[in-house]
Every structure is written in C-alpha cells, then in structure tokens.
Design a protein that fits this description.
Layout: H1 3-39, H2 59-65, H3 72-76, H4 83-114, H5 120-132, H6 136-149, H7 155-179, H8 183-191, H9 196-207, H10 209-225, H11 228-233, H12 241-246, E1 249-250, E2 253-254, H13 256-276, H14 278-287
Antiparallel strand pairs: 1-2
C-alpha cells in the first residue's frame, strides 16, 4: 500500500464520523422535535421563534396515563382516549398475533425445508404474493367476514387479521434458516428414539434461535405499529395505541402535547426492546442472507 493510498484512506475515515453524525441527526430530527413537544408547556408548542431551551414538564405524560387532573373530565367522558386501556389492547394483540404467526409459519417452514413438496416453488410464490397484497385491499373483505362470525372489535379477530401478513413473512424467513441446519442432525436424533417433532424442537430450533428471534421482533413491531386494521376492525373494546393517539383531536381542539407524549410512550418500548435484542437481529439477518 502506497503512502498516498494510506493518506486517502485516513481522510475517508476522518470524514466518516462527521458524515454519520449529520445523517443520524437528519433522520432523528422529527423524533427529537416530537420528544421536545411532549416536554414543553402547552403555550410553547407553536412559539415563534421556537423555544429551544425550556423547563421540561411531565404534565402531558400525566394527562395521557390519567394521573393528572386537567383532562380527567374529558377522559372519563370518552372525549379523549383511555391510553392505558389501549396499551393493554395493543399488548394482547401484538403478542397474540406474533405467537400465532410464528408458530404457524415455522411449522409450515419445517415442511418446506424438510419434505419434498409438489409445486413447492408455486406455494412459496403464493406466500410471497400474499405478503405483497396492499393491506387496504383486504380490510373490507375481513370486515365482512368478521361481521358474519362476530369477530369485529374482538381480540381473536384482530389477532387473526394481523397474522394474515405475518405468516407469509415467517414462512419465507424460517424456510431459509431451517435449510441451513443439516437434516442429518434430526435424523440422528430420530435414530436415538426421538420423534420428528421432538427432534425438531431439541435439535433444530436451538440452532435457528437468532433467526427466530429476529422474525419475532419484526412481527411484533409490525403488529404494535399497525394503524389500518385496528382503525377499521376495532372500536372502544379493543382500540389499540396508534388509533387511540388520534383521539387527542377532540371537539376541534388538538392536544398537541398529549399527542406527542402518547407517541413517545408508544415509541420508547419498541426502541428499548430493539436495542436489547440488536445482537439477535443482526445475527438473524446475516444468517438468513444465504439460503441453503
């Protein structure tokens, strides 16, 4: 390596840091502005010039979770959303749909990975096409079906609805992961007396844990953030957080501080969870990059 090449590489490394910081700040700017709005007093929200330095307040967060008094009357009258109830609904629906879709998709992926299936590529293409269908085109058919079977505004209905797009994703992801595990490992366990399901659980599943974990995270985040299906298929009983946030637009009055606080409360758990699971996400993504 020549001296000029070393100098050039050194300049590139020195520039990489500032450029990365600028790019990150550019994409983080809306979130940072959102966070600052949630901590500002109501009178400072639209102040011009903007209030860059202010005394933070948790009043909006207190109003959102129902522990402060200013909006208690509106909350009890149903004119603004019950955030804690929506939080419980979101947890039930996100966790339930993630577990259901992961189980069904992984079982189907085992079939594609371990057995010779006629028209296998056609089936996999069909799963991919389901994933590519715009969600808005399925809302009306699902609404009609759920109305017939009494599943509108129920946890079961929402879990099924969210799983419609999650199962194809799980099938495609997990098929690639499972094919990377040699089938001979399961066959050896079966020779030792294990049944095929137990061999899969004891041998294969531990080896595909990074991919499984990454798939679970993606599914959970999708269900947690979904807006369209809950907007159409839920009402007061099972309203989720993304829909509840709209409720802070009430009677011509927009509670900007409360809306920003609710948005941050929805965002923070996903960010923290993703940061804690970052190692598994990276491992799962890289492991699935090569298909066996």
């Amino acid at each position: 390596m020549t001296l000029s090449t070393e100098v050039t590489n050194g300049k590139k490394r020195r520039l990489a840091g500032p450029i990365t910081i600028v790019v990150v700040l550019f994409f983080m700017a809306p979130i940072l502005w959102f966070a600052s709005t949630s901590l500002k007093q109501s009178g400072l929200t639209f102040q011009i010039p903007p209030a860059w330095f202010f005394e933070p307040t948790l009043e909006h967060y207190g109003n959102v979770v129902g522990v402060s008094k200013p909006l208690e009357t509106l909350w009890q009258a149903g004119q603004i959303p019950n955030f804690m109830g929506a939080l419980f609904n979101s947890l039930i629906i996100a966790v339930g749909s993630t577990l259901l879709s992961t189980f069904l998709g992984t079982v189907a992926a085992f079939g594609f990975a371990r057995f010779k299936i006629r028209w296998e590529n056609a089936f996999l293409l069909g799963y991919l096409l389901i994933r590519m269908v715009p969600a808005v085109s399925l809302v009306l058919p699902l609404y009609q079906l759920f109305r017939i079977f009494g599943l509108n505004d129920t946890y079961v209905g929402m879990i099924i609805a969210e799983s419609t797009f999650q199962v194809p994703f799980v099938v495609w992801m997990m098929t690639g992961f499972i094919r990377q595990v040699p089938a001979e490992l399961e066959e050896s366990a079966m020779v030792d007396g294990l049944s095929r399901p137990r061999a899969m659980l004891r041998i294969t599943v531990p080896l595909i844990t990074p991919g499984l974990f990454a798939t679970v995270i993606f599914n959970f985040v999708q269900a947690w953030n979904d807006f369209l299906y809950p907007l159409v298929l839920t009402s007061q009983n099972t309203q989720t957080l993304p829909v509840a946030i709209i409720g802070f637009i009430a009677d011509g009055n927009i509670f900007w501080g409360e809306m920003a606080a609710a948005g941050m409360l929805v965002l923070l758990p996903v960010i923290l969870f993703s940061m804690l699971a970052q190692r598994y996400i990276v491992a799962g993504a890289t492991a699935g990059a090569v298909k066996g």
